[in-house]
């Protein structure tokens, strides 16, 4: 058993529950996440991190040394997933009109537990409340040299959950397997051991120039070759020791019905 923080269905309450696999226990009753729609357990600003998996940089190859920057990034490359993107476990992912497919962005969400300013790497984990699974959805794009606002910041493009696993129950955030399934078929498998900036260093580097507040979420990054999703596809992202997040892709008209 591990301890997690979940938003209880049908209420606005955030509660600590006991979790085993895809089941959580609340008030003596068991609930299975594959039978539930759960609101996102997060409330702060979500900061995404670009180019933090080694495979991403390797794929860019020599282009990293061409204009406009002429070298690999020296600091974390960040973007924001605004409030309109936030969604929960079991909720629909909208497929915008004109888009044929989407990218599933499997990301470890690092939930900040207290105000973090200019942290040292060795103290960074003390400021983490826990971890959650995030699907950093986007419309496929190629350029990393300009903010992909239209592709990444659409309504419903940031499912998170199903809960926040407390920090103490995730022994090593830099050695977690990440698996992505589309319609039950494994489409991607990697590990947070492939992060360029491990979790502690990422937090330290980000808080060197900006404050992270309690409740903010810092995404560790999205692996290279993100799986594609089409209308009707069910995507499931599982992160070892954290949880499994599942959503279905639907046309915007169907997605709007759930609002």
From TrEMBL:
Residues 45-249 form the Fumarylacetoacetase-like C-terminal domain. NCBIfam families: HpaG-N-term (TIGR02305). SUPFAM superfamilies: FAH (SSF56529). It holds the Pfam family FAA_hydrolase. InterPro entries: FAH (IPR051121), Fumarylacetoacetase-like_C (IPR011234), Fumarylacetoacetase_C_sf (IPR036663), HPA_isomer/decarb_N (IPR012686). Keywords: Hydrolase, Metal-binding. This is Fumarylacetoacetate hydrolase family protein. It comes from the Bacteria. One of its GO terms (molecular function) is hydrolase activity. Belongs to the FAH family.
């Amino acid at each position: 058993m591990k301890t997690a923080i979940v938003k209880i269905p049908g209420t606005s309450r955030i509660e600590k529950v006991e979790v085993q696999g895809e089941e959580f226990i609340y008030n003596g009753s068991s609930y299975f996440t594959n039978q539930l729609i759960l609101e996102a357990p997060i409330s702060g600003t979500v900061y995404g991190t670009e180019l933090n998996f080694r495979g991403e940089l390797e794929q860019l190859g020599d282009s990293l040394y061409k204009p406009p920057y002429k070298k690999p990034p020296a600091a974390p490359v960040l973007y924001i997933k605004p409030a309109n993107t936030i969604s929960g476990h079991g909720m629909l992912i909208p497929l915008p009109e004109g888009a044929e497919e989407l990218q599933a962005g499997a990301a470890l969400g690092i939930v900040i537990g207290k105000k973090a300013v200019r942290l040292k790497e060795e103290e960074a984990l003390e400021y983490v409340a826990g971890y959650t699974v995030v699907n950093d959805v986007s419309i496929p794009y190629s350029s990393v040299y300009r903010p992909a606002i239209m592709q990444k910041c659409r309504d419903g493009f940031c499912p998170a959950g199903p809960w926040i696993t407390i920090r103490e129950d995730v022994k090593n955030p830099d050695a977690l397997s990440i698996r992505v399934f589309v319609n039950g078929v494994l489409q991607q498998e990697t590990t947070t051991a492939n992060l360029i900036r491990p979790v502690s260093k990422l937090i330290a580097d980000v808080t060197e120039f900006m404050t992270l507040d309690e409740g903010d979420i810092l995404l560790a990054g999205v692996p290279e070759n993100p799986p594609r999703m089409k209308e009707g596809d069910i995507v499931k992202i599982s992160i070892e020791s954290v949880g499994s997040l599942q959503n279905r892709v639907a046309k915007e008209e169907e997605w709007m019905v759930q609002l």
